[in-house]
Amino acid sequence: MLLAAPASADATPAPHAPAVERPAQPRLDRLPTLTLPQRTAKKSPAARVAGEADAVIPAKPRQDVDGDGYSDLMERGIDGQLYVYPSAGAESHTYTINGDYEEQYKDIIAPGDLDGGGGPDFFTLSATGTLSLFQSWGADSTGYATWSGKGWQIYNKVFAPGDLNGDGRGDVLARTPSGELYLYTTTGAVESNPFTSRVKVGNGWGAYDQLVGANDMNGDGIGDLIARTTAGELYFYAGTGTAATPFKGRVKVGNGWNAYNQLIGIDDQTGDGLADLLVRTQSGTMYYYESTGYGTFLPRSTWGTNWNVASLFLGAGGNPDFGKNDLMGLDGKNNLYWYYAKNNGAFGDRQLIDQFPSGLSFTLASSFDKDGQSDLPIVYKGTLYNGDYTIGNGWDIYNSLVGPGDLSGDGKGDLLARDRSGNLYLYRGNGTGSAFATRIKVGSGWGAYNKLLGAGDYTGDGRTDLLARTTGGTLYLYAGTGNASAPFKSRVSIGAGWNTYNKLAAPGDINGDGKGDIVGVNSAGDLYRYTSTGTGKFAAKVRVGGGWNTYRNLY
Q1: Rounded-to-10 torsion of CA 427, 429, 433, 435
Q2: Could you give the 3-state DSSP secondary structure of residue 517?
Q3: Which of 79, 159, 193, 405 is a good FRET partner for 510, with 20 to 30 A between their CA atoms?
Q4: DSSP string spanning 360-376?
Q5: What phi, psi does 539 have (nearest 5°)?
């Protein structure tokens, strides 16, 4: 994280970049444990192929990096490294996708082996909507991108369900914020456009907060889909093998699946030819559900613990988030401290960033560039700085700056600024954090609010939203539209009584489900967490800890 370094003509110390790095992922003292299922090589009792009473058509594994015929678990840790946990039980190791080392991909999608080369291929998705294809170089790395396509930021979820048209290659599904689902079948090309023209699957898919490309769960060789509602209802969609109508009608699997913050497709792990499912609780416990062959599962078994070290699982069902997963506090001596989110609703131990002179105004914003880490723009004597960049002068006309994420639909982080007359302006980011486009007036009357905050999505559609609190304590949600000229829908009241908190902050996703959360500190110094339900509302508050009144501001 880079801090500002404005010039100063007097003896006042200028702010400077601290010699402090983000802490490494907490692996050394809390390694995740892994218990692999036994491989029994039994056969599916369901979805028999005509004329072959006990036949199962094995679907190809999608994440088999070690070549043993089974998919391996892959995750990106809090430290930004990509890790592989081999299905054969070998020691975990890092995996390198040879793209831009400065970029943190918004998502990584594994469709399997697209060209018959033997190793798995991967799609990476940038925050700005570039989808790139990488081919495997073996068990620990890929080559460089052989194809890239732009415009994928129009979707809030891109994922690989397995083979949906019966040609033996994995395909891709993509959902829009309005709930339209599209199918992209693959052609086998890896040096040029790998897809045929998209086919609309249907509408109404925004009802699900998690979509899992499960691969083949019923033994017919065709990819299937698992979908979960925010209420915790789980549904199974069996694949048909026909691109025009790729799924049969949904079948309800059960209730209570919102006990998990991520559902993860892991393919067949037992050798019976049926794809299985992993799930993670907020505490970091991983459970394994073995498929029955009917779209349902046997009772769960424990896979392991401490899996909250993973910030992204390949094959996870939740919408990917990008840009901010941390919190900062400024105490009365102008010491600035940093906390990272642990994906379990709590924060890691604080780290001192630096002590700063008075007269600085901080804002912890969702990332303005491709590294996926929050930025800390600073206003000093009217000049706005972001890291090494001097943005411009005259920013002291504003009494509130908020960087909630992308508000214009281009995937680049934007900035909101409110002046003392209550006018709100949108500054579109350029994707590098070095400059902003000419401001766009969003509206007037925003002086009615004593707090503007936001980081990510609160409604479940993948778009960036904004929260605003009145002086009377009512909190309102402004759902994002993705349109720069009118970035918000009409406000919706979340509830009253929010003036209980003398400090409110939006740290992004802190419980690992991809949805933005908020925290508040009361007069006693107790910090409370409100996790998003993905419906524009928040779950009941949970006390995180005490002693937070040591800070005069949270960001």
Answers
A1: -60
A2: strand
A3: 159
A4: EEE--BS-SSTT-S-B-
A5: -70, 165
